[in-house]
Write a structure and sequence with these properties.
It comes from Saccharospirillum salsuginis. This protein has 462 residues and is an alpha+beta fold. It has 12 helices and 13 strands. The protein has 2 domains: 145 residues, Beta-Lactamase; 193 residues, Alpha-Beta Plaits.
Length: 462
């Protein structure tokens, strides 16, 4: 059985009350017993002294009748079971009730002032003295059984009171433990739900006092976490996961417009014939087809450690090598471009068989040093890359024929130092925005799939 907070609290309160009751009860009973013992002894000593004082004259005048009357009248007192007067030689001059204790105990008896005999009888002793002369002694025997019975009654009453008190406190403690334990259990359940990622959990119930404030604080925290998770999910839809992870992990919430020079590759993929396709069609149909092709672009890009930078009309811009560094970004960019071409070719074959409209693509890619970071205004920023490679990739995409993958000779040379690639030169052309002509190449394919290097660090899916 698992002990909950309420059970532990009830047990603790019960134990505390039990210990306190035992200590207090023992103290009170001890004091009560002491008072009863003192009163009993004082009564016995007083009776013995009275008998001794009354026996002075009859003892020294040897008035046996008077001594007998004194003894018999004293034996009629409550709790007095015996009384006797003896002379200094130990002879009994008058007695009533039970027999006297053994005379061999007299010395100890005289020193103690009282002597407890068998059958719970206590004997009290007082000497009979006249002007410094001892004529004998007065003995009074009192029954202590009434005192013991009273003490036993006190113990029983104390036990009953303590038992009732403990039971009452236990019931109160259990009820209090339940009322305090439920909010604690609800809070534990809530923290476990939050820990498991279930941010929609809310603590239900009408708790009072501090627990009500605690419940409100917990529910507000869970609501904030749920909203944060929703924002993160929406944020990851607008930017790639690596970009979202990079900036959400920063402690400084103030994002700055800044960039960093990195070595990266840029791929532009353009849909050929989009303008003619969109004429006379509903926007919903156009959006459906665009989303279909863009999904193929994005899935392939993620497969090769790339990120979708943006969609520009019917064109997609893909980047490799940032924000996470990738020493093989050229290789991954080229693999992505060729894979997109193959996927779109397969997709168009299936759509043609189904009688659906098809769009061809053209691809341009380049690589080198770019500035990557947050660009824009304070109100609206975007993670992107700018630089000559991005401009060149865009221009090459515009110059490529449908179905072609076009790059520049510098990109091709840097790539083929480690990865052989089939391509053929087209021509040296003047590209808008560049002062010197650019030597371009059209990529055919990899020589043989068996000759490709291992891609142990590539992603296997989007």
């Amino acid at each position: 059985m698992k002990w909950h907070f309420g059970h532990k609290l009830a047990l603790l309160m019960t134990l505390l009350v039990l210990v306190a009751s035992c200590i207090l009860g023992y103290t009170l009973v001890y004091r009560q017993f002491s008072m009863m013992e003192s009163q009993f002894n004082a009564t016995g000593a007083t009776l013995a002294s009275q008998l001794s004082a009354a026996s002075v004259e009859p003892m020294f005048t040897e008035d046996q009748l008077a001594l007998g009357n004194l003894v018999f009248s004293l034996s009629d007192q409550p709790s007095v079971v015996s009384a006797a007067v003896i002379n200094k030689d130990g002879d009994i001059l008058a007695d009533a009730g039970r027999s006297l204790p053994t005379l061999s105990d007299v010395n100890a008896f005289k020193n103690a002032g009282s002597l407890t005999a068998d059958n719970d009888i206590v004997w009290f002793y007082a000497p009979v003295v006249f002007r410094g002369v001892s004529g004998g002694a007065a003995w009074v025997g009192m029954d202590k059984s009434h005192l013991l019975a009273s003490q036993q009654g006190v113990i029983q009453s104390g036990i009953i009171v303590v038992t009732l008190l403990v039971l009452s406190i236990t019931l109160v403690a259990v009820r209090l433990g339940q009322s305090l334990g439920k909010p604690v259990r609800d809070l534990i359940q809530g923290t476990r739900a939050i820990e498991s990622g279930h941010y929609g959990f809310r603590i239900r119930g009408t708790h009072r006092g501090e627990f009500s404030d605690l419940t409100k604080a917990f529910n507000n925290m869970a609501k904030g976490l749920e909203e944060k998770q929703r924002v993160e999910r929406l944020f990851s839809r607008f930017v790639s996961d690596p970009v979202a992870a990079r900036y959400m992990a920063q402690d400084n919430v103030e994002l700055k417009q800044e960039g960093k020079r990195v070595d990266a590759s840029v791929v532009f993929v353009d849909l050929v014939g989009y303008t003619a396709f969109s004429e006379g069609r509903h926007p919903e149909e156009i959006a459906e087809v665009l989303n279909l092709y863009f999904t193929e672009f994005a899935n392939t890009c993620h497969q090769f450690n790339g990120n979708v930078d943006k969609y520009i009309g019917d064109c997609a811009m893909l980047i490799f090598g940032c924000p996470q560094p990738d020493p093989e970004h050229r290789y991954h960019a080229m693999k992505c471009a060729l894979q997109i071409r193959e996927r779109i070719h397969t997709l168009n074959e299936l759509r043609a068989k189904a009688g659906d409209p098809c769009l061809d693509i053209r691809i341009g890619l380049s690589g080198g040093t770019v500035l990557a970071g947050l660009l824009g205004s304070h109100e609206r920023m975007q993670y992107t890359v700018i630089g000559e490679p991005a401009n060149l990739a865009s221009r090459l995409c515009d110059l490529a024929a449908p179905g072609q993958v076009m790059t520049d000779k510098a990109f091709y040379a840097a790539l083929t130092r480690r990865h052989p690639l089939q391509a053929h030169e087209t021509q040296s052309i003047q590209v808008k925005g560049f002062q010197t002509p650019i030597e371009t190449l059209t990529i055919d394919n990899w020589p043989e799939e068996s000759s490709l290097p291992s891609l142990g660090h590539e992603k296997t899916g989007s």
